[in-house]
Amino acid sequence: MTSLMDSVFRNRAGDAPRAAQIGRGLEQPVSPRDAYVIARFIAFAALALVAWSFQDGATSQRLALLLVGAAIAQPALPLFGSDQDSYRLVQVISDVLTSAIAVFLAPAYFWLGVVGVASIVANFAVLTPMRRYVPVAICSVAAIGAAGALTGIDQFARAALLLAILAAGHGYMGARTRQSMGAARGDVLEAISAAGGFAYVCDLQTGRIVDVAGDVERVVGWDTDSWKLVDHRDLIHPDDLSGFWLDFDDAKVGEYADRTARFRRPDGTWVWIRDLTRVVTIAGRRSLRGFSIDVSSQQDGLARVENEAATDELTGLPNRRALLAELAVREHQVGHHLVLIDLNRFKEVNDTLGHDAGDELLEVVADRVSACLGPTDVLARLGGDEFAIIFDGELDEVHVAAEVERVAFEVERPVEVSGVVVTVSLSAGIVRAEQGASDPVTMLRHSDISMYAAKRTGVTSVLFDRALEAVTSRQAAIIGSLREALDSGDLCLHFQPIMDVGTGVMAGVEGLARWDHPDFGLLTPEAFLNTVLMSEQSGEFTRRMVLHGVAAASELVSAGIDVTVAVNLPVRVLEDPAFDRFVLESCDAHGVDTGRLVFEIAEQDIHDTVSITSAIDRVVQMGSTISVDDFGTGHATFERLRWGNVEQLKLGNEAIRDAVERSRDRAILKSVLGLAVELGYSVVAEGVETHEQLDLLRTFGCPLVQGYLFAPAMPIDAVIEFAAAQRGRGEAGRVSSVPPRPFD
Fold first, then answer.
1. Which residues of 520-553 are buried (b: 16+ CB within 10 A; e: fewer)?
2. Does 92 fall in a domain?
3. Are residues 180 and 314 in the same domain?
4. Which of the 8 DSSP states describes residue 230?
5. Mean pLDDT of all residues in the chain?
6. Out of 32-36, 90-94, 460-464, 655-659, which region has the weakest mean confidence (pLDDT)?
7. Over 29-59, what HEC string results?
8. What is the pLDDT of residue 16?
9. How many CB atoms neighbour CB 94 within 10 A?
């Protein structure tokens, strides 16, 4: 192998004599096998045949033999002048002598010889400098004149004078032509030099330098002798060597090579060199003709652009494009893990404190996650509040899950942004690179599936498996049929009675979403609710459910049942100012007082933010009630008891079940209930399923209960029947006994 740069040596720009030789130096040397030499041989041989056909007896024969001799002499001429300038001189002298001898041998063709010499001189005038042309022109005129005089040709003097005039004219025109060509060539070379480059010709096989034009030292920093002698493989950056090197065996004549590499200067710095060259044949050998330029500034700019394109502007982390590139590098490997992270409650920080605060929080999160990772792990920000981690190496899932828990612990530590202390948590999807499923697109899709599964289930992380993908496919089918379900009424509310422990009568109902799906049957919220709430149709779904609740309240009033109707509400819908108007208009349309509506908000979604606080205030001013669902499952439960605009708390089944089984949990439940009641909250215990749970709640003074111990969720007409049956039973219908279920 040989380098495209192995045959470059230095020429100083501005050296006038050298500049005059550039055209000559960059031309090809001549060998007996050159096509030009062979063509001349064929031309003289053809002329010999033509002369033989003249049928002039001995004259034709002598002329033909002379031309045959000239043809035979052609391959020998390069031996007297191997470079093109020398060869042209030898060739023109040979041609003039041949013409003069032809005139001497065949005087009848004198004027033909004059024309031939005039053509030879004209061609030579364009191809050679004046210092060589003038002696040759004079000798040519003298040779023709002498041949004419010796053979007694009439008017030979006039012929010589005519030839002299033509030679002078050809010389002048040739000089002007060469001057123009030299200026154009000089402009090109000046442009190359100004661009920080140099032109060169080299022998590809041996690396022998033919010539170079341009300031090599200014480009690469090496002086002429050092640049000629040093092995350029030692100067090319190791990362660029394979891409810059040209295989001699693969180099084909006529092909272009465009290579870029870093070359080490004598001071140890690096310069980017772009080399554009063409493979040519010179003297029967493959050679290179091209030029090299300094492209360091362009490469540095390109590197900056590429770096910016692969870097997240806010955090300085790799972005999605860079992450995909990292995954692509590992595409044919297995065992590494991709973790997709999404921050919970980040939108609230953005909405309440502003985007500057959100950016500040993202920077803190990026720093905290980075501090948890090893040197070979990769952390990227994909956009918004999404991050991704590549855990390198053959790690088991338990280890990766533990690492994610450690990251989650660091992320959840409180942080002060814009003067406010906030906390966020994360949901993470974990996927392991497996054979046939380690390409970037597949891994991102699988990690996205498991991340949303973590969000739905409320856990820190979920590991992807094929069963999860099947669930996701079902959820995709559910989302695909959501629009039709909203239009057809297949999505509706079933209502579960809420019982008053003191009076034993139904005090309210809670609306729970049901979907009578044509393919999957009657679906409970666990099968579709989180998926629907994360879809683009979440807002419309929630409004439909609220509208069902208002309609149910109207039917209950018409049946003479004075109870409240509770509907679950995502906090983002509650924060929408247009929601208040929707509720008022819906209640007016159905003739329902807004005081009959209870809106349940999950405790984990309620935070002391301006937007949520004002939204709750608007609902209270409207006359409806706010109930905190799943109370006791979130963070800082006792801190929540300070809310002044929340009227109702709902205790989850888990807290009640644990209180029955463990004394410590029983003490906690008693304290929470006592404090809540003392503070004026209406408390509902949901998920009551056993007499033991009911007795315990009655003992602790819990005023309201609901659960399968009394009735499941049912259509509104069944609720009306349940209430009528309860009134018919009288005292027997009180919660001290277990009433028969409507569907038993």
1. eeebeeebbbbbbbebeebbebbbbbbbbbbbbb
2. yes
3. no
4. S
5. 79
6. 32-36
7. CCCCCCHHHHHHHHHHHHHHHHHHCCCCCHH
8. 34
9. 18
- Select from 151, 171, 191 the last residue of a domain: 191
Are 394 and 528 part of one and the same domain? no
Q: Helix (H, G, I), strand (E, B), or coil: what is residue 481? A: coil
Token output for 508: 């309210």
d(CA 666, CA 683): 16
Q: What is the CA radius of gyration of the chain?
A: 48
**HSE (CB half, 13 Å, CA atoms) of 206?**
6
Q: What is the pLDDT of residues 540-564, one digit of tens each?
A: 888 989 999 999 999 999 999 999 9
CA distance 580 to 712: 30
The letter for the amino acid at 132 is: R
CB 455 within 8 A of CB 342: yes
The answer to whether residues 54 and 83 belong to one domain is yes
Cβ–Cβ under 8 Å, residues 511 and 567: yes
The alpha carbon torsion through 402, 404, 407, 409 (nearest 10 deg) reads: -60
Q: What is the pLDDT of residues 476-515, one digit of tens each?
A: 777 777 778 877 778 889 999 999 998 888 999 999 999 8
**Number of structural domains, the chain?**
3
In a domain, 300, yes or no: no
Six-digit token string for 40: 């001349």
Residues 532 and 457 in one domain: no
What is the C-alpha separation between 539 and 485, in angstroms, rounded?
Answer: 15
Give the domain CATH number at 576: 3.20.20.450
3-state secondary structure of 743: coil
204 and 284 Cβ atoms separated by less than 8 Å:
no
Beta-carbon count within 10 A of 18 CB: 14
Does 424 share its domain with 550? no
CA dihedral 351, 353, 355, 359 (to 10 degrees): -120
**Residue range 565-608, pLDDT digits in tens:** 999 988 778 878 888 899 999 999 999 999 999 999 887 777 65
Q: Is 7 part of a structural domain of the chain?
A: no
DSSP string, 250-315: G--TT-EEEEEEEEE-TTS-EEEEEEEEEEEEETTEEEEEEEEEE-HHHHHHHHHHHHHHTB-TTT
Statement to judge: residues 436 and 507 lie in one domain? no
Which of 191, 213, 229 corresponds to the end of one domain? 191
Question: What is the domain range of residue 151?
Answer: 16-191
The C-alpha angle with vertex 431 and arms to 427 and 434, in degrees rounded to 5, equals 180
Considering the domain architecture, whether residues 481 and 452 belong to the same structural domain is answered as no
Q: Which CATH number covers residue 393?
A: 3.30.70.270
Question: Cβ(567)–Cβ(650) under 8 Å?
Answer: no
> Is the domain of 536 the same as that of 399?
no
Is 227 a member of any domain?
no
Segment 148-175, tens digit of pLDDT: 777 777 777 877 787 778 777 776 786 7
Distance CA 723, CA 734 (A): 12
Q: Distance between CA 428 and CA 59 in Å, rounded?
A: 104
pTM given for the model: 0.49
Residue 541, helix vs strand vs coil: helix
